[in-house]
């Protein structure tokens, strides 16, 4: 049977340009958000045409609350550049910097979804640190799976990849053992407190060994008290000096 050849493409009017991937919510710039005409960022169900053609004034407040921060680029060492008040994805808002190390930085952030403060470890945007972070995430998830009570190790909430930085979300804990040592001018703790700290450390290390895991960086900086509360205790009867001690002793 002889087929008739078409001399013209039947849908010549169609736009055949390649399609880009849909933008993630934290990729959207404030100017583009304005096109949504009052829809809240991060709510995909709201990305529909508005029923009226006017944008109410409160729309601007919704945009600035969840808008992505400007692209500042990393510093020379690959650390993420941020400003207090920035959003780290639409879910988290940066409140303060808690610490910095070889791996990256730890930021105190507000979790809008869970309505709680969290600590987010932002790993340097360098491949070897990104790879190490993925191994750390795997270990933390294994520990969390077996630590049902959440009393043996710091609890990982979730993780995500943001602007080439692995971000690990942890529960927010109190000061480290090193912080207390430093603030007390490295004076020794009361013996009862030393015994309790030693007991918890040995139990946590034994828990890891049962899972055939070894902690290779056990030091005062990596031992955190669960609560930020502390008490001032007089070091001697005449009250010439005092020590700052944790009010609650549970560790992570």
TrEMBL record:
<dbReference type="InterPro" id="IPR011009">
    <property type="entry name" value="Kinase-like_dom_sf"/>
</dbReference>
<dbReference type="InterPro" id="IPR008271">
    <property type="entry name" value="Ser/Thr_kinase_AS"/>
</dbReference>
<dbReference type="GO" id="GO:0005524">
    <property type="term" value="F:ATP binding"/>
</dbReference>
<dbReference type="InterPro" id="IPR000719">
    <property type="entry name" value="Prot_kinase_dom"/>
</dbReference>
<feature type="domain" description="Protein kinase">
    <location>
        <begin position="92"/>
        <end position="252"/>
    </location>
</feature>
<dbReference type="InterPro" id="IPR051175">
    <property type="entry name" value="CLK_kinases"/>
</dbReference>
<keyword id="KW-0723">Serine/threonine-protein kinase</keyword>
<dbReference type="Pfam" id="PF00069">
    <property type="entry name" value="Pkinase"/>
</dbReference>
<dbReference type="GO" id="GO:0005634">
    <property type="term" value="C:nucleus"/>
</dbReference>
<protein>
    <submittedName>
        <fullName>Serine/threonine-protein kinase AFC2 isoform X1</fullName>
    </submittedName>
</protein>
<keyword id="KW-0067">ATP-binding</keyword>
<dbReference type="GO" id="GO:0004674">
    <property type="term" value="F:protein serine/threonine kinase activity"/>
</dbReference>
<keyword id="KW-0547">Nucleotide-binding</keyword>
<keyword id="KW-0418">Kinase</keyword>
<feature type="region of interest" description="Disordered">
    <location>
        <begin position="1"/>
        <end position="20"/>
    </location>
</feature>
<keyword id="KW-0808">Transferase</keyword>
